[in-house]
Amino acid sequence: MKISSIGYVIIAYLKNHYKILLFYCVWSMIFVIVFFLYNVPLESVSYAMLLSTIGAIVYLGFDFVAFYKRHKELMKLMDSIPIHLESLPETNALIEKDYQNLLMGLYQDKIKHISQWSISMTDMMNYYTLWTHQIKTPIAAIKLLLQESDHVQNAEALQELFKIERYVELAIQYARLESISSDLMLETYSLNQIVKQAIKKYSIIFIHKKIKLEFEELNDTVLTDEKWLIFVIEQILSNALKYTATGTISIYMDPNTEKTLIIEDTGIGIQAEDLPRVFEKGFTGYNGRMDKKSTGIGLNLCKQILDKLSHKISITSQVEVGTQVRLDLSTAKTFIE
């Protein structure tokens, strides 16, 4: 925090000591009146007033310097809020000690509540992680049973089961997001293979909805985390398929920009007023309000993951024309935390 100007500190000091100054002025006037009533020579009165004023100025000068130094110390502490309150400057003043004791009490109470909250959050995250992993077993069993049967309705059931798998995976990745830095495995991968894995996973949806896929071979490599980047591409494909009833989804590299992957659809598009907020957590926009099942988490999760990978994402769209998602997969500013 910026240290206050000297003028501001002087005014603050005078406000803090106005009672002492007022007391000095009143008693000085009393002495002048008494000396006057007793016919003390003016020269003697003036000399006494001069000495007392000089003494008061010297005292106030030294006291102001100490006051200003203390102010600077506290402002420096504000720039780097101390982890422990023991770094607060020492004081002999009872009131200041009382304030420090009050701060210490509040600090200890804060630490206690943070500790309780941390334990509670850890327990909750452990439960969610356990649940999302355990739910995979019955999902896999149901999927196997449906695949073994040739019933006409099984295709529809498999579609819904696939959606459940996606929601479970979204929950797992959301739970892991806080510790993503320790989970990153940055290596150079073939972008073509990464995108093909995502396409293969959604092939059943492409076939069911009869959406055409235009895919150009991606002769490029990227420094990234394969697992997390696949998840991001899958989420973008999921959105494209979700909001494209008929038409085409195209995947290709931008010919004018290095390492920029484009995923383009011919879906319903995004309202212009919604575009600036599509990455906000919980924001569903017009399309999300029309589709009551939208959560507003997917794109926000993608943005956070790509930020961690030092990649970038941007979206352009036109209503009833389609949406284009651009992934800048360059890693010039990648940091391993």
Question: Could you characterize what this model shows?
Answer:
The chain has 337 residues and is of the alpha+beta class. Among the domains are: 6-81; 185-328, 2-Layer Sandwich (Heat Shock Protein 90). 60% of the residues lie in helices and 11% in strands. It is built from 12 helices and 7 strands. The chain has helices spanning 6-16, 18-37, 42-79, 94-134, 136-148, 154-176, 180-183, 191-201, 203-209, 226-242, 285-290, 298-308; strands at 187-190, 212-215, 221-224, 248-253, 260-265, 312-318, 322-328. The strands form 2 sheets. The protein has a 5-stranded mixed β-sheet with strand order 2-4-5-7-6, covered by helices on one side. Helix 5 runs antiparallel to helix 6 and helix 8 (191-201) packs across helix 10 (226-242). The chain is elongated. It starts with 5 loop residues before the first helix and ends in a 9-residue tail after the last strand. The relative contact order is 0.07. The mean pLDDT is 82.
Summarize this structure briefly:
With 337 residues, this protein is an alpha+beta fold. The protein has helices at 6-16, 18-37, 42-79, 94-134, 136-148, 154-176, 180-183, 191-201, 203-209, 226-242, 285-290, 298-308; strands at 187-190, 212-215, 221-224, 248-253, 260-265, 312-318, 322-328.
